[in-house]
Design goal:
Elements: H1 3-10, H2 14-22, E1 30-33, E2 36-38, H3 41-56, H4 61-72, H5 78-87, H6 93-100, H7 103-111, H8 113-129, H9 138-152, H10 162-180, H11 186-220
Helix pairs in contact: 3-11, 4-5, 5-11, 8-9, 10-11
Length: 224
Amino acid sequence: MRIGELSRRTGVSVPTIKYYVREGLLPAGRLTSPNQASYEETHVRRLRLIRALLDVGGLSVAGVGAVVAAIDDEERSLHDVLGEAAERVVPRYEETRDRDAAADEETAEDSRPSLVAARAKVAALIDRRGWRTEPEAPASEALAFALAALDDAGHGGFADLVDDYAEAAERVAHADLDWVARNVVREELVESVVIGTVMGDAVFSALRRMAHVDASDRLFGMER
């Protein structure tokens, strides 16, 4: 197909497609003449992935480049490729501090007692559950910041529920990956992870609220 048809099928403008090619996100088409190139279904899949990473995952162009480079590196395991995509849609609190705080403020932030204690709790959780992740991973750091914020707000006891949350998260993670595994093409697998992570969070959050309403009525509804 020509670039015009590729644009129509994907909803991505021709200038944007050319920009993605220049940035190395999208492979160039096969030249059929000095001024014409032909594009394949692989280009359609790659454009879908790029848009999912940008629009749903909120990645930067550089972040998208890192993900597609991982996809194209056939020596990288599928686990590494999926991890490259999933970790980039998790908030990185250290990057926020780099933007918004001076160096001495960053040091003070990192060493505040609640955050130090929260990181220890996260490391212990990982060890206790035998999870194959690292305390320094973005998701681990996000959890540590959340626990520290709870402690700072006077609700540190909420951390006692972390194993209950972890057990529920394991079940959700297995369901997520069972769904992802239905795809066979690497681009489609990564797209599923990104969309599943971002939109799955929204779905799970809504289900949690619904379950709260039900549990509240069962526990406290008789008081009416």
